[in-house]
Amino acid sequence: MLQDSGLQQCCWIEDLVASVLIRNGGDHKLTEGLTPIKIWSGHKLSVKHLNILGSFAFVYVHQVNRNKLQSRTKFEILVGCALSTNLYRILNPKEDKVIDTIHVKIDETKTVLASIWKK
Predict the structure, then answer these.
(1) I need a labelling partner for 93 at 20 to 30 A (CA). Which of 6, 79, 83, 107 fits?
(2) How far apart are alpha carbons 70 and 9 in whole angstroms?
(3) Where does the Retroviral polymerase SH3-like domain start and stop, copy by copy (predicted)?
């Protein structure tokens, strides 16, 4: 998954979390048709917030952090989803900082290329 997304090796933990979430959302041989998440929490896994890792993400910039002439969104990269909430984990490649937010539009038709990363 990490190689297909075009993300750097520093994002491996985000990829691992997504893999575990997907694995625990599927049927297992020993659980007799139930998923581990259903057994543990009593709820079925919702997949509506799962997106392609490495997709372009356009994060909303709140009005207090910009002036009238600045863009309302900034370009960042989807690296995963938060476990305990329905927030998206978004990487800002310029600052090397990951934030959790729900105010985001994700473009799954375009993914990050390895050339974006500076080495």
Answers:
(1) 83
(2) 32
(3) 57-111
